[in-house]
Every structure is written in C-alpha cells, then in structure tokens.
Amino acid sequence: MRKRAVAVMERLHVHVDPDARINTLSVADKQMVEIAKAISRDARVLIMDEPTAVLSVGETQTLFEQIRRLTARGVAVIFISHKLDEIMELAQRVTVLRDGQLIATVGTEALTPDSIAQMMVGRELSNLFPPKQEPDVDAPVVLSVRGLKAPGVKDISFDLRKGEISGFAGLIGSGRTAVAEAIVGLTHKSEGEVSVAGKGATFAHVGQSVDAGVAYMTKDRKGRGLLLNVGLQPNLTLLTLKKHLKGIFLDGNSEARALERAVRRFDIRARDASVRVGQLSGGNQQKLMLGKTMESEPDIIIMDEPTRGIDVGTKQQIYHIIVALAAEGKSIIVISSEMQEVIGLSHRVLVMREGRLAGKLEGAEIVEAEIMRYAAGIKQSGDDERINA
Amino acid sequence: MSVSTHEAAKPAKGLRIDFKTLGPLLALVLLVVLGYSLNPAFLNEGNVTNILTRSAFIGIIAVGATFVITAGGIDLSVGSMAAFIAGVMIIVMNWTVGSMGASIWTVLIGVGCSLIPGVGAGFINGFLTTKAKIEAFIVTLGTMGIYRSLVTYFADGGTLSLASGAHDIYRPVYYDSFLRIPIPVWVFIFVAIIGWVLMNRTAFGRYCMAIGSNEHVARYSAIKVDRVRTATFVLQGLCVSLATIIYVPRSGSASAATGVLWELEAIAAVIIGGTMLKGGFGRVGGTVIGALILTAIGNILNLTEIISNYLNGAVQGVIIVAAVYLQRGSLRTRRKKAE
Question: For chain A, percent helix, then strand, then coil, each to nearest 5?
C-alpha cells in the first residue's frame, strides 16, 4: 500500500512523506493527497470540485499536467471551478450553471472569460473592478506595524493610511494570514509594536481589537467564520452581541433590524432568515461574513481571501463594497492569492515571502510579473533599503 | 430562490419544530396517558407531587448540565459532587450545632457553606478543562473519583448523619409545601426559569451555543471561550449545590452511596430533552421534561406489575437510545427536504 501511495504521488510530483499524518500537512499538500487518492482509483470519470482553490500557481500547473495526462489516457474529467482562466486553459467544453439551472454548454473555442462571466451573472459584466481612486498620500497613518514577529512571521513593518487599500500578495504559506492574526490578537506569542491611530495597540484578545476598530475577516468562512448549523441572525451578531443587549437581556428586535440592514446593504440572498447558514451558497456566506465583520463598525478591516470560492457576480459585488468602504475613509488590507484581485483593488501591494516582506509596489509598478518575482524570491529588496513605508 | 422552493421550505421547518420541542413533550404526555390507563392512581395528587419532588434533584442538576453540554463539554462528576457537598454541609452543620446549638442559623450557615464546594468543584473542573487543556470527560472522570472518595473518607467509610436538632429544623425544606406545591418543586421551577432565560435571552447562552457549535468560530468572534466554558462548569456546580440543599433534609445523611449514578440520569434528562450531546444546541425546557420523563418511568413501574421495578434502568436506557435515534431521524428527514 505504501509503495502504491508513493507511486501515485510520484506521478503527481507530490513530495509528501507517505507516513505523515494528514493534519500535519499544509492545505495545499492535503489537496494534492486528495487528488492522488482520486487518481489512484483508476477512475474513468473524475469530478473535481474547485481542486485549485487552495493551490499555488506552481501546484496548479502540476495538477493541470496530471489532468492532461489522464485525459490523454481516456479519462473524462469534469472540472468545477470559479477560476475562468483555468477553465479556458483546460477545458474543451464549458457548462454554465446559475441558481441551479443549466444556462449553456459551449465549446471553449467559442468563449472568452468575459463571455463565461456574463453567462454566470446573467448580465453584462462591464467592469469587475471599480475604477481606482487616487490614493491620498497625505492621509494620516491609521495602522502602523513595526518589527512584528509571531509564529510564521519574521520582522514585518508597514503602515496603512486612512482610505487606503493595501494588498498583501505572496505564495500560500508566506505568512500573510499569520500577520493578520498577530495584529488582531489571535496569536498570543507575538512581538513588535502595533499602533492604531497613533496609540499603542497590542491586543491580547480579538475583543480588544474589535473595540479599537480593527476587524479581521478570516479566509476560512466554514471553519472559523460562520456557525453553519444556525441561522443568519445569530451569525451576524455574534461578534457584536454586546450592542444588542437591553439591560442583561438580548434584544431580538434589535438583532432582527441589524439583519435586515445587512441583508439590504450586502445583498445577502436566503430564502428566509431561519435557513441554516451551511445551506447558503459560498457567495452568500461570504457576504454574511462581511456583514458580520462590518457590524463592529471597524475603521481598519483586514480581509483574508475575501472572494475565495465564490461566483464572479458576487466577486464583483464584494469588490465594489471594498472600494466603497475605502472611499468612505475605511482602511483596508486585502490578503489574496488571486493576483488579479490584488492588482485590481490595491493602492499599494506588499509581497510576502517566508514570513518577511519581500517587496513593496505602488501605482504603475503593480503588475503580475513584478509581484511574482518578489513572491518567488527572484527579486528582493536589499537589506539596506528596508521597507519602511 | 423561486416561489416554489419558498413554499416547500415551510413544512420542513414545521417538522423540525415538531421533533425538537414538541417531541419530548409528546413523549411525556404519552407516558402520562399510559400511566393513568395502567393505574388511575398515577394521577392522584399525592403521586403527582411525588413525581415532581423526585424529579427536582435530577432536574436541577440537569439544567446545569444543559449548559455544560451545549458548550461542548460534559460533567461526569455531578453525582459524587452532590455526595461531597452533602458531606461538607452536614459536617459544617454538626460543628455549628456543637458550638452554638441547633437553630435556624446553624441550618442557614450550613446551606450557605454548601455553595462553596459546589462552585469550587465546578471551577476546578472548568479550570482543568480550559487551562490545562484536558478533555472534560477525563477531568470529570477524575474528579468524580476524588469527590466520592473524599465523602467516604469524611464518613470514615460509613454514614455522616445530621445532628437531630438541626435535622428537625431543616426537614421542612424537603417535606413542606407552599401553595400545595412542595418546596423542592418550587426550587426546580425557579432554577428552570432562570436557566431558560440564561440560555435563550442572554449573551451567555448564545456564547455557549456558539462554542459548542464551533469553538474556532467562537474564538474568532471575540468570545472568551475559556471563560465561558469555565462559567458553565461553575454554573453546574451551583446547580448541584442547590439540588443537594433540598436533598439533605430528606434523609439528613450522606454516605458513599449518595448521588450514585446521578450524573448519568442528569445527562440522560438533557439528551432526552433534545439537547445535542456534541454541543451547539441546548434546550432547558426539554431538559425539564426529560427529568420528568425519567422519574415518571420509575414511578409507573412502581405502580404496575407488568414490568418489574428492578428493570427501571433498562426501560430508561431504551428511552435514552430511542430519544437520540429520533433526533437523528429528524435530522435525516430535514436533510432530505433540504435537497
């Protein structure tokens, strides 16, 4: 069995110790093992549901090679993905579903990513990203981080200005999430100075960061963000339950009003409020989580993979919300593995690599190739010109 | 999102309410009908008060257990804890009787002091679970043995008896009635109402539900998970103290045999009431009904000849397994409806 496991993983170019326990692997490695498991069964039809959602670019390419090898051997593959470029690269035919209905099945050669997106949304998708507003270089610094160290984070320093959208790019495991969690007090063993609006802000607990106006929206909406087995209302108000107290008792009416507001503001679609959150689509879950985060009325919002695994229409909505929030004067950090997202939203991009800031890009410098060079370690900002924005 | 799915959703929702809230109540009604048809004496006023009074001990403890279980924990030590608290209370009362004679004050001091071991023991359970990161099952399995052996030690292997002077003053707490309802039942009603409000109308109850449902989500939602968890164990300890306060005047004694298997009856009441053992969903009202069901079963077996009273435990066991099976069943129907 061990031999077979090694053989299959060799074929996939997966370098994982076959005796390792699954929970010690990175998310990407887990995914590759899952794929190896499916392939090892000599399937004739292979259905892959968002196989690349957590894979890096390199790992995705390895997977694609494998899929091509399989199809060459006569295996049929159904590849479910939100990433349109992957579909264009891989598929011969594309089937678009929307709200549980078949929209069309078309040969790939007759399609462009835009035309697929249009079918998915059912309307013209003119601009995925709203136009960028000029960053205000004189705006006050609202978040300042100096020499932050935490598990997975080695000496990070950066500033965030009022109304700024700052993108955090990097490969999976480069420490972006660890930085966010260290700032908001989810990590206990962290060192360094963090100040919010000029005041020292070392948070020992998420509640303190919320009180100080700093909110973190996790990338793991099912495991960390939302309670899947309850309805919308308790999820929305969980972070800010104190706002809905009348004396010592919960005020259900006040909670219901909050839900009504959030449903309207973030366009959350559920057949009724009692439906369990686990039954909502990924996009609606994400919008609910955004609503939950915004309930705390933060000035600084750290969004970790704000559009992971959601459809392109909802993505567009979320991008518009992010830009509108920044225009209102909120400061936003967007951590994302989707290059287009980082490029399309950010005034400034910080690239992380192995727990450090590898590079900082602004304005016209923000292009994919440059980000990749820093992320992959081909290019580095020298130690003498330390990143001190 | 279409109109048809909207309408199809309604019956599924109705079904869920049926199973979760009305299920245990329905079972209790059936049991009452069964009891009455087997022996009309079942519904005599005397017998009904008897059932209510007897269910008060387990019921009060089970209300506390509802919080522990909802927050994803379990407390196996409640039976031993009750014996331990009873022992401490009797020792304190006898000591005060010895130094200042038997009066209402000796009883009040004893009752007051009995809250300390309850809250303390609960805190120890909570502290070891949250700070030392030992599973609640293991922690309370350990403290279960500790509390019970402490009682045996205090009683020197025998029985601790309350000085008769104090017992005479204390007796009415178990045997007297107010508005024809026995005092223990009043305490039970009081605890149940407070528990219901705490679970359904306060942030604490919501936090318990969130923690039991997904501890990570709770932590990321700024909930002080360790603090809330510990509080559930302290609350459990407080409930055990209250139960013991109304239990001791019944016999005026405590021994190693006091409160044996109470933990299982309390957990059973919670589960029969519809609270999920894996946490995240708690029903105080269901727990009260669960406690009544358990007591009613024993009572019916006592009143009739069909099944031997010695099989009480077996019948209760069947009811517990059936209750959990029905909960699963309702879950499955719901999933089917959802698809």
Answer: 40, 20, 35
